[in-house]
Each structure stands twice: as structure tokens, then as C-alpha cells.
Amino acid sequence: MEAATLWLGALELVGALVFALAGLSDMCARRRSAAVRRQIWALAIAVALVLPLPRLALAASTLRLPPGVAPALLAVWGVGAALLLARLIAGHAAAGRLVRAGAPITEGPWQETARSLWFGDGRQVELRACATSRTPQVVGVLRPVILVPVPMLAAPAAERRALLAHELAHVARADCLLLLAGAVARAIYWPDPLAWWALRRLRAHAEDAADDAALHTGIPSSSYAAQLVAVARAQLERAGRVAADGLRARVRGVLDVGRIRSDAPARATRWGVPRLVGAALVLATMVTACEARSAEVPGAPASGQRGAK
User: Fold this and answer.
1) How would you write the chain as a 3-class SS string?
2) What is the value of pTM for the model shown?
3) What is the pLDDT of residues 271-306, one digit of tens each?
């Protein structure tokens, strides 16, 4: 148990370093598009998730903890991780209920607009009308579904096109999968505030990148900002001020004429996630190798001294 506690503590420290480097990279890329900055945090979260695998090969630490400390630390970490994972599972279960309660949209203007906008690998994105949702949203990881609020079924063509472009950008970039990965990483590294910050930055940049895709449909930024203001009012009534503040930040970003935006709307890539995981494995292995090499350095001088004698 003591070895497990020390291994987990070292993992938390290395994970904090990964998130800190991602934050520094994000600051250096502040003149780049939201899609690029989103990718920085996606890679950092992927590295944090695969980091435990190569670290299993490291030798056990020789440090010693006071009696009773190791079980207490493991218990605190386990309770926090379990609570966050339970909340994540409950949220996905609630999203599943929304999907099952929604009515499939198989024809009509929303389906026609979705077909005209979707430039992926031939798959058709499922649309469902939801009576309890206030704004369109993507639900699901393996088979994403776009939920359309029933009151919005009669939305004008320009508004419908912009809203669908935003949600289809999330689908094309597999944002639901990345946000799930970010939530799992937060549960593993929850004692570190940087893990919570990483998930917030990933979510914010993903929304900004999807807004860029919506603006590529030709809708004026002022009209799209007005749509976001209407959504913010609904969120303020239902989800509280925190969610509404996030939408206000998006409105400011949409109206910011100096912001660097993506050159083209999102396109689905079959190998996007596998490449991300592969890059994360390489980086995690390199970090672990450097850590193992640094642990061997103290033994080198002693060997040299014996040779001199």
C-alpha cells in the first residue's frame, strides 16, 4: 500500500507538469485559432490518461511514509475519484434518457440542412426532437445524436444552418469523446487544480472552434451572437450563472473582429483520435524514460570512484 501511494503521488506530480506545460503552450498560442488551442489541451489530456501505462515499469520508490499515512491518502484519493466518476456516469445516463425520449427527425428542413452541411465519411448524423432541451446539443460518444429543442423546429433557415454547423463541428471533431476523456482525467488527477482547469480550457476552446465553424456558413457574427444571447438567457434561468457566463464569453469571442479563426470548417477524420492516442503514448513514454534515467544518475559517481581506486 505504501508503494502504491508513492507511485500515485509521483503520477499526480508528473500529471501536473503535463497540464502546466499545456497551459504554457496555450498562452504561447493565443494568436492561433481555437481549433489549434483545443488540440493542445486534447493532447495534454490524452498524455495524462496514458501516462500510468509506461510508469508501471518504473522501479518502486525507496521513500518511506509515516505509519497510517498511506491508507489515509489512498482512501481520500479513492473517494474523490469515485465521486467524480459516479457523477460522470449519472450525467451520461441522464443524457441517454433524453435521447430515448426524443422523437427521430427523419425528414424535413433540419434533416436536409444536416445533409448539406455534413462533410464527413458518409455517415448520417441522427437528429432527434427533444421537448426538455433549451438549445441544440450533441449527446453520445460512439454514436453521437444531435438533440433539437421542439420550439426550434420552426427556426429560420439561417439560424437552423448556423446551429447545426456548430453541433456538427462537435461531431466531426469527436468533442464528446474528448470531453469524456477530460472528465476521466480530472477524476484521476482531481487533487491537482490544473486538471480541473485543463477540462475547462478544453471545453471552452471546443466551443469557440465550433462557433468558428458556424460563422463559416455565412451567418453574420451579429446575428449569431444574438442567438447565443437568447441561449444565455435560457441557461441563466435553468443552469445558473456559471453556464451563462460561459456563453457570454462566447458572444464576446464571436464579436471580436481581431480573433484568429479556423481557415475552414471542421472535417471528420477517421484516424484523428488514433493519431492523438499514438502521439500521447510516445510523449508519455518519453516522459517516463526521462524520469527513469534521472533516477539512475545518483549511482554513476560511485562507479567512477571505484574505477579510480
Assistant:
1) CHHHHHHHHHHHHHHHHHHHHHHHHHHHCCCCCHHHHHHHHHHHHHHHHHCHHHHCCCCCCCCCCCCCHHHHHHHHHHHHHHHHHHHHHHHHHHHHHHHHHCEECCCCHHHHHHHHHCCCCCCCCEEEEECCCCCCEEECCCCCEEEEEHHHHHCCHHHHHHHHHHHHHHHHCCHHHHHHHHHHHHHHCCCCHHHHHHHHHHHHHHHHHHHHHHHCCCCCHHHHHHHHHHHHHHHHHHCCHHHHHHHHHHHHHHHCCCCCCCCCCCCCCCCHHHHHHHHHHHHHHHHHHHHHHHHHHHHHHHHHHHHHC
2) 0.87
3) 578 888 889 989 999 888 887 777 665 544 443 444
